[in-house]
Automatic annotation (TrEMBL):
Family named by the database record: Belongs to the AHA1 family.
Domain Activator of Hsp90 ATPase homologue 1/2-like C-terminal: 25-157
Organism: Actinomycetospora corticicola
Gene3D superfamilies, per the entry: 3.30.530.20
Protein name: Uncharacterized protein YndB with AHSA1/START domain
């Protein structure tokens, strides 16, 4: 089954949070695996114009991660976080920080819901430390990375 897949990115007006919703033509187990297996993660996370390398990836409750995105001009973007909860095929709770702004740590919850036809709805909720931090994240071009990343994830899952 092929559908038109759109990514919805919304800023919550009442709390400094971002909600991201996307459906995939794959079961929750496959979408979840693509989020915890570093071999798969490097194939889809982020915009197409950046190359990802993983320095550390321990996707288990209490684990953590650190990775770098490198642009065509050699510019490096470093990210890190901790996995608070990994519940296979259902939920990931983690922190997320862009190293130059590591004081702005977001708490992210991703929920994987089974849909009819072997499909999955992924709902992400990122709670930022302030409205200013949230708005800076939104203004950074994160939407390009999220939308292109999920398009790349569709390719990995096909």
């Amino acid at each position: 089954m092929t559908t038109t897949l759109q990514t919805t990115i919304e800023a919550d007006p009442t709390v400094p949070a971002i909600r991201i919703t996307r459906e995939f033509d794959a079961p929750p187990s496959a979408v979840f695996r693509a989020h915890v297996d570093p071999v798969l993660v490097v194939q889809w996370l982020g915009p197409r114009r950046l190359t990802m390398t993983v320095q550390h990836w321990d996707a288990r409750t209490g684990g953590g991660y650190r990775y770098t995105h490198v642009g065509e001009d050699g510019t490096e973007h470093h990210f890190l976080g901790s996995f608070h909860e990994i519940r296979p095929d259902e939920r990931i709770v983690q922190t997320f920080a862009y190293v130059p702004f590591a004081d702005q740590v977001a708490l992210e919850t991703m929920t994987f819901t089974e849909l009819p036809g072997g499909r999955c709805r992924l709902e992400g909720f990122s709670l930022c430390g302030s409205f200013e931090g949230r708005d800076a994240m939104l203004a950074s071009g994160m939407d390009e990375g999220v939308v292109q990343g999920y398009e790349r994830l569709d390719e990995v899952l096909s």
